[in-house]
Design brief:
With about 240 residues, the chain is an alpha/beta fold. Helix content is about 45%, strand content about 20%. The chain has nine helices and six strands, in the order αβαβαβααββααβαα. The strands form two sheets. It has a three-stranded parallel β-sheet, with helices on both faces. α5 runs antiparallel to α7.
């Protein structure tokens, strides 16, 4: 699997590697660094959560020097995604580094991803904002139902995590955390779609899902769309399912 990922990285113009600046290096961080070392693609290193560091300069500079010794990164940029610090500098560096290419989409089209995928990303964003510890890095969101009407869109989505303890955090006491995530996500999706949304969230435990190639590939929006279409056909023709 590492070989497949490395080949994919070799086909990119630039690799962005994000690590948590407020924590010690973890096995997952080392795995990413090993992948970056094996590819010939230029890479940026983003040191996230600099807002958490108590004495920023005293802690940040040695950290930058440490990662600079590990790999010849094109840029090492400290950021805070939560406070949006360093993002303008990141954007400037991206524009300066990436090659110019043909325009594939109209000026007013900001993404080629379907709304189902965007809805999943908005839900995951709220998970990241609501749970700031280890849980976000072990979660993903799968849209299991998406029914778009003229006045109301119904969405059912599963937040997948790796352990029962993480499930408990995501649900929260008497379901308050899941309600908080759902309310905020629904508001963002309504803003995107321009209509009312009925959002139903579930939490599912998928042990070691990040190490499952089949599961990770299944998260691709094309696979999810194929699943949704197949499920709808099977509902209409139950005798022909399978």
């Amino acid at each position: 699997m590492m070989g497949d990922v490395r080949e994919a990285l070799d086909g990119c113009d630039l690799v962005l590697t994000i690590v948590d600046a407020a924590k010690k290096t973890e096995p997952a961080d080392q795995f990413l660094l090993d992948l970056v070392k094996r590819t010939k693609t230029p890479a940026f290193l983003l040191l996230n959560k600099i807002d958490v560091l108590r004495t920023e300069k005293r802690q940040l500079l040695p950290l930058i020097e440490q990662y600079a010794r590990l790999h010849d990164f094109r840029e090492i940029i400290p950021i805070s995604a939560r406070r949006r610090e360093g993002l303008e500098l990141l954007l400037e560096k991206l524009i300066a580094t990436l090659p110019q290419g043909p325009r594939y989409f109209p000026d007013d089209q900001i993404t080629d991803q379907p709304v189902r995928f965007m809805a999943a990303e908005l839900i995951r964003e709220q998970v990241l904002l609501a749970t700031r510890e280890e849980v976000p890095h072990s979660t993903t969101v799968l849209v299991e139902q998406f029914q778009e009407g003229t006045r109301l869109t119904r969405i059912a989505a599963a937040i997948c995590c790796e352990r029962d303890s993480q499930k408990g955090i995501l649900i929260g006491q008497q379901g308050q955390m899941l309600k908080k995530i759902g309310t905020a996500a629904r508001s963002e999706i309504e803003r995107m779609l321009g209509m009312k949304v009925f959002l139903e969230l579930f939490v599912k435990v998928k042990p070691n899902w990040r190490e499952s190639r089949a599961f990770v590939e299944g998260m691709d929006w094309r696979k999810q769309l194929e699943y949704l279409v197949t499920a709808k056909v099977n509902q209409k023709n139950p005798g022909k399912a399978g």
